[in-house]
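Minutes, project check-in
Item: structure for the 345-residue chain
Input as provided by the requester:
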Amino acid sequence: MKSNHRQWKEAPTEEMEDQGGPIEAHKISKNVTLYIDDANNISDKFKDIDFIYMDPPYDTKRNFTLDSESSKTGFTDKWDSNDYELWLSKLVSNLKKTLSIQGTLVFHISSENSFVVEKVLRGHFKNIEKIYWKRCHGKNNVKKKFAAVIDILFVAYDNKRIFNRASIPIEKDSVWAFKNKDDVGKYSLGALKHDRTRRGYIYTIVHQEIYYENAYGWKLSKDVVEKMISENRIHFVPRSRNMYIKVYKHEHKGKPLSNLWNDIHSITRTTKDPRLYPTQKPQKLLERLINIFTNPDSTILDPVCGSGTTGFVACKLNRKCILIDINKEVLPLINKRFKDKMFNI
């Protein structure tokens, strides 16, 4: 391998002993600690991690630096032959050992470079799910190929993992548009009858001398529906002899989050979430992941932390977080972030 990920290091200060000598550790905040080292060297020091977020090299055959030509902050992402796959497999294997029985590893990768990652993850985990993140809009300067706008977040786990359901606001033109109104408020119509693919509760409701029945049954029992009728929470359509559940706007928590995320955009030139590192990810993305896959008492690990966004957001959400990076130059960047407190969540 001619070049590896962030190969420069500095002389460590004693904080935690390892076979190769003392490990350089920095207390960034009460809940966040940064280790300057290779994650493969020190991962065995950690355990009971509920959530690992990793955004490592992608084997893009590129060098990544900040926009400034004088800046040395960044890393080389050029690999020979199958060295990338070997390195990645070793890292994933070591990181998996740190997970708790309810732990999840999320691997962030561009869709163009996802094949090797999926291959490696499926060799180590029983369950793999994919989240498709539309990080930006299409670019006008792309002429000979499709614009690359999708990243894949592989969600890997073995056992019953922490999973906190998330919802997002409803668009004005969605199927959940609240076009109906009664004395309680605006409401949308929730389906109550089953279709021909399944069979529900078979019964008839008589309302204002009209019979409401469905050959394939209703989704809720007759007792429940009659109670909802008494509470004026059923919308009747006499012409089609159909019933709907009133879903009030003020009670609705939003639509359940799917595996297509297009409501969070990549970092642009803004003071709310300033770009401090070439491959930095938006705070809102990490906020969502942490809220879904952790509990307040969870510990988080980012083994290739870059500018420390994972730890920065974890601190805001009052989670414990371990950051690791082999690049000594991330330390002043991370310290500055925690000092400036430029949160965008």
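Outcome recorded: The first helix runs from residue 39 to 42.
No further action items on this chain.
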